[in-house]
Specification:
The structure is a single chain. This protein is of the alpha/beta class. The protein is 43% helix and 14% strand. The chain is built from 12 helices and 8 strands. It has helices at 17-29, 43-52, 57-66, 87-98, 103-108, 135-143, 164-167, 171-176, 201-207, 212-234, 258-278, 281-285; strands spanning 6-10, 37-40, 112-119, 125-129, 153-155, 158-162, 181-185, 239-243. Strands 1, 2, 3, 4, 5, 6, 7 and 8 form an 8-stranded mixed β-sheet that branches. Helix 1 runs parallel beside helix 2, helix 1 (17-29) packs across helix 11 (258-278) and helix 3 runs antiparallel to helix 11 (258-278). The chain is globular and about 55 Å long. The relative contact order is 0.20.
Amino acid sequence: MGKKKRGLVVEGGGMRSAYAAGVLLALHDRGFNHFDIAVGSSAGACCAANFVAGEPEKNRVILEDHLTSRNFVNLANLFNKKNILDIDFLIDEVCVKQVPLNLEKIRNAPTRLFITATDYLTGRLVYFNNREHDIHEALRASCAMPFLYKKKAVYQNRRYLDGGLIASIPFEKAVEEGCDYVVVISTREKGYRKAKSKFPSPLYRVAYPKNPALIDLFSRRHEIYNETVRKISSSQSRKVHLIQPQSPLPVSRTTKDRRKVRSAVEIGYRDGEGFCEQVQEKEIAGEPKIH
């Protein structure tokens, strides 16, 4: 038998990605960082980028020290044209200046990184990668949450929205790439299933009057998410290990409390350590066993 192809999948979720940051830091510290591909959506893609660069500690610093500020989350902007989540601050200020992404390491990493985004016009899923695309712009596109980020994320003359609209947990890409062994990091608790949105559908039509495919996507988002969870739990043709919180995290998509964010990182780190303790080094080199 040949070498097993290993994939890493990281869910987003705004500030809930603090949990993913903790898990990734534990995997790195324990030496479990050799993946053939990594796929991330939204904030999960940002965390995956630093992990692929071998610098996952940056995720904790970004989340705790920079994204808990009013510069990033400002709920007072709900009823004006300013951003509630300022993705431009995250990308242009934090990821370029304050805690810069190591673009050289990301591009030259042995792991191929895929970043999801949703095409604004077609409502279809798009994958950017660390070999061919502008990492900063790919992450901006992937993090452009509808209604929370009110500007337009445009890259190569096309507008994009949050990749998590279609692939909150981009597990299908790992399958498509032929991964035999997949580690999935979810920021939702065990047993979670997404409920249908209570957001009035007419408001979607007001916001996106020329995008029927996008409006349809909003209405089916819970079905897509729950079907992905089902596929992960029922996968038979590959080894899949799902790392997720045992109970709801102390953070939401827009949490600004630094102590809660740090707590979510610590929960993720403990869960990541627990996973590494189950998977011995000899299993990593050969055929991994899932406990």
